[in-house]
Write a structure and sequence with these properties.
With 150 residues, this protein is an alpha+beta fold. Strands 3-5-6 form a three-stranded antiparallel beta sheet, covered by helices on one side. Strands 1-2 form a two-stranded antiparallel ribbon. Helix 2 packs antiparallel against helix 3 and helix 3 packs across helix 4. The longest helix has 26 residues.
Length: 150
């Protein structure tokens, strides 16, 4: 994760460089459950600080360093909520961020999905279709469900 180096003004931060390679299908397929766990832990760390990234579904915002550790970048869509706002909006924003690890499993390693995870991914996909700025994505996880006889 990048470190905060300073603040230029009320709308601009200076963050440290995060070296790494953009998360891609080959990297994820090589270690799906490990990267799933790393991303889940990063999300938990951000949320513990009151930070909601809101753009983790894009691979370009996830980097893997030379040691295989996952990092999160591009906090342009992120928000920081205080306690009252977190009580009101935190659940919705948490669901948005927490969907990302499942999305990557469904896309790059659908055979790794448990039946419960596959159902959660399908439910989240249905909800995202209601969001006016989203276009429908791929549905590889449906093939995984069919292979599992569901």
């Amino acid at each position: 994760m990048p470190r905060l180096l300073g603040q230029l003004d009320r709308d601009a931060l200076v963050l440290s460089l995060v070296p790494g390679r953009t998360l891609d299908g080959d990297l994820f397929r090589a270690r799906p459950r490990e990267l799933f766990a790393q991303l889940s832990a990063l999300i938990d760390s951000l949320h513990a600080l009151g930070v909601f990234h809101l753009d983790l579904h894009q691979r370009k915002n996830l980097l893997v360093d030379e040691n295989g550790r996952l990092g999160v970048v591009d906090f342009g869509a992120a928000v920081v909520l205080g306690p009252a706002a977190r009580a009101l909006l935190g659940g919705l924003m948490t669901r948005s961020d927490r969907h990302a690890p499942y999305k990557f499993l469904a896309r790059f390693a659908p055979e790794e999905l448990t039946p419960e995870e596959a159902r959660a991914v399908l439910w989240q996909r249905r909800l995202r279709r209601l969001w006016p700025f989203m276009r429908p994505g791929r549905v590889e996880y449906r093939a995984a469900l069919k292979r599992q006889g569901r």
